[in-house]
Amino acid sequence: MKHFFLASILAGAIALPAAAADYTIMAPAAPGGGWDQTARTMQTAMQQEKISDKVQVMNVPGAGGTIGIAQFASQQKGNPNALMVGGYVMVGAILTNKSPVTLKDVTPIARLTGEYEVIVVPAASEVKTMADLVEKLKADPGAVSWGGGSAGGTDHITAGLVAKAAGVDPTKVNYIAFSGGGEALAAILGGQVTAGISSYGEFEGQVKAGALRVLAISSDEKIEGIDAPTLKESGLDVVIQNWRMVAAAPGLSDEQKAAVTADIEKLAKSKTWQDNLKTKGWIDTYLAGPEFEEQLAKDITATEAILKDIGLVK
Description:
Layout: H1 2-15, E1 23-27, H2 34-48, E2 55-59, H3 66-75, E3 82-87, H4 88-96, E4 107-122, H5 130-139, E5 145-148, H6 154-165, E6 174-177, H7 181-189, E7 195-199, H8 200-208, E8 212-217, E9 241-248, H9 254-269, H10 271-280, E10 283-288, H11 289-309
Parallel strand pairs: 1-2, 1-3, 5-6, 5-7
Antiparallel strand pairs: 3-9, 4-7, 4-8, 4-9, 4-10
Helix pairs in contact: 4-11
């Protein structure tokens, strides 16, 4: 009888599904910005979809994510439960900060989302259109201050490309970098900068509340629900999209990497995640595996060329 009960217990244990991994997601930026929003949206979706029983988010701000990635690479090696959000901004920051730790020192898993950049001003600003801003920029590039995320990131690159398209020396751009979306937003609303640049999702609440006005968006075509012309329609030949990704720790086995990749694929295809994409205006750019690794290498090469062109990298 004893053997029967023991066999029953063992059979029951074998029949149970494997426990979902508890994840910790690092957002290598201050609260309030795009990486933080992405990490917290992942947290909610992974728990609601039962992909993970417990997901924690930690913020490690500074230097466009290069402080965070250095900490992540050194402290989480071999940990299959550690994730980090990153993206286009980090690619630029690694180059401009000459970071010794790069995306080669972690395990890129998948690209998740894309967002176009918008240029905004406070509702009370004398700058009413993109043409007004370009006029000021041409008159005195240094007098136009641009507030956005980290130096060398998508926001900074966009300001440089706008200046170049307007016939202004992009190295003369007066760009003021903030470590988090909350800080940048406060500076823009407070009139401490002439204009702000970021992904639309970071400004949406203030735009809808009437506190900010969108001058232009960096998409190739107008976006439904965003009442603003494209930069192209404003006479500036600029199209740029910010994207965000998730990486795992370095030093994982093939099995561990496959398990993390499977969980991220479940997340990306889940109803909760897809609903959040619509709510936040994020574009689904999910790409994983060798295809993502190949695209990431191309993006790093292209970003280095752009940064050299606008004088941010020698």
